[in-house]
Amino acid sequence: MFNPSRDQVRDFFFSAWHKFNSRQTLTDLEKIAVEHITRHPEYHAILAQPERYQHQEWRPEAGETNPFLHLSMHLSISEQLSIDQPAGVKMRYLALAEQLGDEHAAQHEVMDCLAEMIWQAQRNNQPPDALAYLECLDKKCLS
After folding, report:
1. N or C terminus of the chain with fewer C-beta within 10 Å?
2. List of residues 6+ apart from 72 with CB closer than 8 A
3. pTM above 0.90, yes or no
4. What is the rounded distance in angstroms from the CA atom of residue 30 to the CA atom of residue 27?
């Protein structure tokens, strides 16, 4: 399993954004990352200044969103959708996208469930519960 460090994750996003803006060739993963970055203009200035933001802390308790965590979750969801893992996640995502009329908004709804699943797994010192994740998505589809 690939387990990059915080700095490696940040370097990946800084590099992908730099390469995109300087019209360099992107890897397939960088293309997906840039697709998500372009949907988040609030992160563009951060990604353009690695020397300033490489070690920045974002505190959720202060209402701050870590842009690198947010973008990483988008990448995780994109991967899940591409292989429909856990089984049924793609169907639920497509239902949310249709319901909301916006694929990006649907990804954010999925992200809420993914974050909850990860938080519960860490809190309970257990593996992630794919069934609870899918049940969370089902509730969103019904709302």
Report:
1. N
2. 9
3. yes
4. 5
